[in-house]
Design brief:
This protein is α/β, with parallel strands linked by helices and 177 residues long. It folds into two domains: 70 residues, no CATH class; 64 residues, no CATH class. The chain contains five helices and seven strands; from the N terminus they run H-E-E-H-E-H-E-H-E-H-E-E. The strands form two sheets. The chain has a four-stranded mixed β-sheet, covered by helices on one side. Strand 6 and strand 7 form a beta hairpin.
Length: 177
């Protein structure tokens, strides 16, 4: 007991807040970029015959269980079918193949995992979306979970239960006669 016989109460532990941690949904696995520029003649032109020979002979199993972003980091005109051909070779091995940057890949991965969440499970809940962690959770995921929860939650906050930034509070219904 404290000097004034005041009991210390952990208000955070006793609060009705639900903590939603996006890191719990972080897809584990290596992320890699396949840059098609390495297949271009002088980093400008795709020569179909040489490209198809490379695709046929390349060991695609090295991408086993990886997340792959297909991109071209140089200013070149690459026909769409070239990316599609790469995807046909990567798909049997990679966990996921997307067109774009690593940022695009992360957004797609989080879109996939967040689509499995039923936002109605948060009906009338006070939700704290946990921030700052060990994994590089993209801003997209924070915006997306906020968009998903808003129609259901009574309030949405960001941060830690002991120190939150209020983002949304459902207006109270008034009975007007």
């Amino acid at each position: 007991m404290m000097p004034n016989d005041t009991e210390i109460v952990n208000r955070v532990a006793n609060s009705p807040l639900i903590t939603f941690d996006l890191e719990d949904y972080y897809p584990q696995g290596e992320r890699v970029v396949y840059d098609i520029k390495d297949n271009l003649f002088q980093e400008m032109i795709l020569r179909e015959k040489e490209f198809r020979a490379f695709v046929k002979e390349h060991d695609w199993s090295q991408y086993q269980d990886q997340y792959v972003a297909l991109t071209c980091s140089v200013d070149a005109i690459v026909p769409t079918w070239a990316y599609m051909l790469l995807a046909t070779k990567l798909e049997p091995y990679a966990k996921r193949v997307v067109f774009g940057t690593l940022e695009t890949l992360e957004a797609v991965l989080f879109r996939d995992v967040l689509s499995s969440i039923n936002p109605a499970d948060f009906q009338d809940a006070k939700v704290v979306v946990k921030g700052c962690g060990n994994y590089p959770v993209p801003d997209f995921a924070y915006v997306e979970i906020t968009r998903m929860l808003r129609p259901y939650a009574t309030s949405i906050m960001y941060g830690e239960p002991c120190s939150t930034v209020p983002l949304y509070k459902r207006p109270k219904k008034t009975n007007l006669k």
